[in-house]
Amino acid sequence: MGLNPNFLWGGATAANQTEGGYDLGNRGLANVDLLPTGKDRAGVSAGKIKMLEFDDQHFYPAKEAIDMYHHYFEDIKLFAEMGFKTYRMSISWSRIFPNGDDEQPNEEGLRFYENVFLELRKYNIEPLVTLTHFDVPVNLIKKYGSWRNRKMIDFYEQYCRTAFNRYKGLVKYWLTFNEVNMILHAPFIGAGLCFEPDENEEQVKYQAMHHQLVASAIATKIAHEVDPENKIGCMLAGGNNYPYSCRPEDYAKAIEKDRENYLFIDIQSRGAYPNYAFKKFARENIQIEMKQGDQEILKQYTVDFISFSYYSSRVVATDSSVTNETAGNIYKSIKNPYLESSEWGWQIDPLGLRSALNVLYDRYQKPLFIVENGLGAVDTPDENGYVEDDYRIDYLREHIKAFKAAAEEDGVELMGYTTWGCIDLVSAGSGEMSKRYGFIYVDRDDEGKGTLKRSKKKSFYWYQKVIESNGEDLG
Fold first, then answer.
1. Which GO molecular function, any one, fits this protein according to its record (predicted)?
2. pLDDT tens, residue by residue, 232-290
């Protein structure tokens, strides 16, 4: 049986977590550059602490990250050695339009990514490109209030049109917005939103969501016009909510919490706001301002495939005495007593990935793509930078078994799998380097010190075998 012979194996990163060079090549400042390490990171991410410039009280790890800006030749060569069929990466909006509202794009930024794509093509690695991996040019936040403002649709359209035209023939797989539902949980990261004290935050978030969804549909339209070969996907922060008990109230709550996240994909994949959303807006007095033609655009230009991140499942309870919480991808969950946890408290649930794939495929009947999955862990390298990361291999092996079962036994249409942080990078949640995901160790610590030297971990050679055997040899 086995996976499709054209299955896209690879790894995933984001520009702001790897690239560095924040002030090189005429790049402008982005919201994601301004996420500091330490106690204020969560407040900035949530839009509660307004930080639109650097200060000397904080450390900003994205400024340099792992300096892929200067190391991409070396890094791509390592990806090729592992046998990557695809590499999921993002392009920085502010590298191409430094202010976001510039009349002309920045040629230096365009050329940089063109060179990256040419290098990938040299090794027959298919780029899978996220247009917006949490990036918003800071100028657009200061001048327009970011995605709360409808003008953002025009700026995004110009950015997408520029990218699709410039990279025609080099890139055919695109994602419009990374973890589009993250706007509800980390609105500054997800949409560059900062809140004023008297603002109705839910109203602002859902209005900004509407603007992003219209922008995504317009991007899909342009992509297909520029090159009919283009395939456009949406991207969800995935993982289902389990009821804490078999109390009917817990099950109902799990459905409700899942819908919060499905709302975005329901619109991007099915082309319309679902009835449950309109009921929620009426109940909570949220008034989405829609322009004439918005609903037609959403209906006409739905995505070609659905991509998602999966790190863990979540648990919800209606009993207020159940308070045992655990960490997760940006937001917390009730702790599941049946699961082990990572060093950062993220619960490990491979079967949950198979379940998530089945639920998504049943719901949308469109091809699926797992574009993030991995284990953040502390690695201890030897004097050569080699890491015996059997814990990472174990985690990935079990998740690969789970998605293979979904494809081979359940009939889920699965395009590919890109592990998160295939090379060590700055953690989006915590800003730490010590929370490592990669097959490749990067010599850099949480304070930004280190040589940036790259070295192969044990998992590098393991994943090489996995790809070579198309997932048959999980050794």
1. beta-glucosidase activity
2. 999 999 999 999 999 999 999 999 999 999 999 999 999 999 999 999 999 999 999 99
Query: E-assigned strands of 403-453?
Result: 414-420, 440-442
372 assigned to active site = yes
Q: In Å, how far from its chain's centre is CA 152? A: 20
Domain of 411 in residue numbering reads as 8-468
Q: Which of 126, 256, 372, 468 is catalytic?
A: 372
CA distances from 400 to 15, 118, 134, 265, 422 (A): 26, 30, 27, 24, 15
Q: What distance in Å separates the CA atoms of residue 257 and residue 43, rounded to the nearest whole number?
A: 23
Convert the pLDDT of each residue in 338-395 to its tens digit. 999 988 888 999 999 999 999 999 999 999 999 999 999 999 999 999 999 999 999 9
Average pLDDT, the chain: 96
Domain count, the chain: 1
Distance CA 129, CA 170 (A): 11
Assigned domain for 1 exists: no
Q: Is residue 474 part of a domain?
A: no
**Structure confidence at residue 51 (pLDDT):** 96
In a domain, residue 454? The reply is yes
CATH, residue 320: 3.20.20.80
Does residue 3 fall inside a structural domain?
A: no
> Is the distance from CB of 141 to CB of 192 less than 8 angstroms?
yes
Radius of gyration over every alpha carbon of the chain, rounded to an integer in angstroms: 21
Check whether 106 has a pLDDT greater than 90: yes
pTM given for the model = 0.97
Q: How far apart are the first and last CA of the chain?
A: 19
What is the widest separation between alpha-carbon atoms in the chain? 63
Alpha helices in 56-172 (DSSP H): 68-82, 93-96, 107-122, 138-144, 151-166
